[in-house]
Amino acid sequence: MNASGEQIAVAFSRLLRLLGLAVPVGSVIGFIEALGVTGLHSHSSVYWAGRCTLVRRPEDIALFDRAFAVFWDRRESGNTDEVIDEVIRIAIATDDGASDDDTDHGEPSDDPTIELRFSAAEVLRKKDFAAYDDTELHLAQELMSRLRFAGPPRASFRLRSARRGRRPDIRATMRSSLRAGGEPIQRKWREPGERMRRLVLLLDVSGSMEPYARGMLRFVHAAVSGRQRVEAFALGTRLTRVTRELSSHDPDRALRQAGERVMDWSGGTRLGDCLHSFNDQWGVRGMARGAIVVILSDGWDRGDPEALAEQMCRLHRIAYRIVWVNPLKVTPGYAPLARGMAAALPYVDHFVEGHSIAAMEELAAVISLDNSKRANETPSRGATDARTAR
Amino acid sequence: MATPPSNPADVAQALSDYGYLPDEGLATAVFLALSLKRPLLLEGEAGVGKTEVAKVLSRWTGGKLIRLQCYEGIDASQAVYDWDYSRQLLHLRAAEATGEAQSLATGALENQLYNERFLLKRALLLAIDHRSEVPPVLLVDEVDRADDEFEAYLLEVLSEYQITIPELGVYSTARPPVVILTSNRTRDVHDALKRRCLYHWVEHPSFEREVRIVRMRAPQVVEPLARQVAAAVEAMRTKNLYKPPGVAETIDWATALGVLGVTELDEATVEATLGAVLKYREDQDRVRQHGGIAEIVKQAFERGLLHD
After folding, report:
1. Across the interface, which of A45, A57, A279 has its CB nearest the CB of B28?
2. For residue B148, which residues of chain A lie inside 8 Å, CB to CB?
3. Which residues contact A215 (CB under 8 A, 6 or more apart)?
4. How far apart are the C-alpha atoms of B289 and B279, rounded to whole Å?
5. Element (H, E) at B156
6. Residue-wise burial string across A264-290, b where 16 or more C-beta atoms lie within 10 A, e elsewhere
7. What ipTM describes this predicted complex?
8. Which residues touch A288 (CB under 8 Å, ≥6 apart)?
9. Interface residue B38 vs chain A (CB under 8 A)
10. Could you tell me if B226 and B215 are in contact, meaning their C-beta atoms sit under 8 angstroms apart?
């Protein structure tokens, strides 16, 4: 591998980084090593050497392909100027987005401010998200970040030592028997440990949910950054996974990143299709199995309600508990008239409001609810009842 | 494997000699894994032949296949090593009975217990402490099912190729095993582990390649039927099913048809053997409705024609 080969590899990796792909230095070294054994003479071996070492997620393959075409193919045709122009434009755009937000919010630290915030907090707790202005939203988000919740645990496969039990812990028994001259006087036991259930949050980001989605996104962030086993998705015209973006501890940054990732913010909703792709790509494969699934949506769906019902049924079969949070539920005389809502309701275990912080606290309580049976507020097996009622 | 492969084409040739038809990407990935001695992480839909790669590598290289099936809660005692406590107890009793215990100091007696003969080696330790000329093939299957903690441990083992047992010392190897990890993407494998590995996303094979795979894995199936089966499966994959059939299902189905003595697809046979290829009732219903089976058979005939 000569020096120019290494420079080419590094330059290509930099292009990938500019396009938003995470390319750690170790991967670049791997790429150079790989080129060392495959050589640079064949187009396809360079391509595959790059794909094996620089790409780590199938979602990134399309991006890699584009960058590869720009970098390796156009370069050969001598059309470099145009390429460089394009790259520079992208670079500037990225820098802008990253830098301008950090200076906005100072840390409110002096005492009077804190007092004021607390009194405001009491009013805010009951206020509808839709009626918030921007400062209130900021305060509300502060309040919500204090929410902590954990779903009911389930028995783990892994054993831990216990006072008494039915499984003997031979290792520990033998350890202690050495002290008694090889006589197992003290017997030790093991029992199954506990594990947190995974929490899956599906947030509707359609136009009708807009006033609430911003508030709820913060709730989702509180959940994602507070617990290890949480997954978050945005439902719009299509499904977007935002777990990675939201896992940043800095809430502003997390929300901004998630906002950038979700392309169809405030568009329409196709709940059925989104749930379909969630079930296919993530849920049924294992993510939703035995998990607590929380759907934050008003149930206004442009798609076919039958399709939504079918997907809810699939989800219901594998999830431990489905919680549907509908901010419209608080409206006096609310009935689930939205066709999507009506179709989904038979498969929902808990149907809660989500219009305010108080409602979000209630939601946190519902998630933490530890009953080994499903709630009977809307009986899960009452699917037929709810359907005939409609 | 007599000589190490010198380019991806060698790998492709060798793998197909041993019953696996890779595409160019996979052949390159395997070639790089062998040359750079790095683990290879394979992701892809269920049934595209991820696990099979490790098996065929073992047949080709002559290295022993060591399989570690991951599951939630897997820990060191199941993946790395464990002590054989009952035998240790028995040894203590025997030492007592023969009077050996009296003559030995406690420390010496304990040292006897933590001897390699009481060590139960599990997959990871077996792969490191292999003591053979040909490095084994370590298959870490469905790594996404294991917990994060286990992933961190795996990363440690795969970067150093050494394992420490406090009572015995460090096990390491000069000839690291060939490591294949597979994942079904039920969750993201941790980035650090991915960085350590080469990565390849395994796709459904192209039509012609699938025909060749069927011919190879189900030799009793005649060429026209193999083409029809591959075409029918390809048609099914476009039907928006919950679980589009993978290569494994194609082979199963072709084998089933071969056993039944079928030489050509028709509606009745497809109907009767649908369970070999579609394993969800909803998927079967979806294919059946609106004369779907007749349509699939028609497509299979058109696509299955040999273009000479």
Report:
1. A45
2. 228
3. A129, A132, A137, A140, A141, A144, A360
4. 16
5. helix B148-160
6. bbeeebbbbbbbbbbbbebbbbbbbee
7. 0.74
8. A198, A200, A278, A279, A282, A315, A318, A319
9. yes
10. yes
Cα–Cα distance for residue pair B202/B199, rounded to 1 Å:
10
Structural fold of domain A199-389: Rossmann fold (3.40.50)
Q: Is the pTM of this model over 0.80?
A: no
CA atoms within 13 A on the CB side of A71: 22
Provide the token pair at B288. Answer: 């059946």
Closest CA relative to residue A174, chosen from A164, A190, A185: A185
CA angle B64, B129, A56 (to 5 degrees): 70
CA–CA distance, B169 with B166 (Å, rounded to integer): 6
> Taking a C-beta distance cutoff of 8 angstroms, is the pair B134, B61 a contact?
yes
CB of B194 less than 8 A from some CB of A: yes
Sign (positive or negative) of CA dihedral A291, A294, A299, A301: negative
Residues (pLDDT < 70) of chain A are 1-3, 74-134, 137, 139-152, 182, 225-228, 249, 251, 263-268, 333, 370-390
Q: Would you call A156 and B31 a contact, using CB atoms and an 8 Å cutoff?
A: no
How does DSSP assign B53-113, residue by residue?
HHHHHHHHH-PPEEEEE--TT--HHHHTEEE-HHHHHHHHHHHHHTTHHHHS-HHHHHHHH
User: Residue A279 half-sphere exposure, CB side, CA atoms within 13 Å?
Assistant: 23
Regions of chain B where pLDDT drops below 70: 1-2, 306-308
Q: Report the alpha-carbon distance of residue B226 to residue B216 in Å, rounded.
A: 10
Cβ distance B123 to B64 under 8 Å? no
| C-beta neighbour count of B221 within 10 angstroms | 24
Give the strand pairing for A239-241 and A230-235. Answer: antiparallel
Q: How far is CA B21 from CA A100, A327, B14, B236, in A?
A: 52, 54, 9, 22
Quick check: helix, strand or coil at residue B228? helix
Q: Which residues of B286-300 are buried (b: 16+ CB within 10 A; e: fewer)?
A: bbeeeebbeebbebb
**Collapsed DSSP state (helix, strand, coil) of residue B44:** strand
Residue among B182, B198, B242 with most chain A CBs within 10 A, to mutate: B198
Parse chain B into domains and list their residue ranges. 8-74+122-202, 81-117, 207-299
The alpha carbon dihedral of A38, A44, A46, A50 has a sign of negative
Q: Specify the fold of B8-74+122-202.
A: Rossmann fold (3.40.50)
- Return residues 42-71 of B near A (CB < 8 Å): 43, 46, 71
Angle between helices A111-126 and A134-144 (to 10 degrees): 90
| B85 closest CB neighbour out of A48, A157, A171 | A171
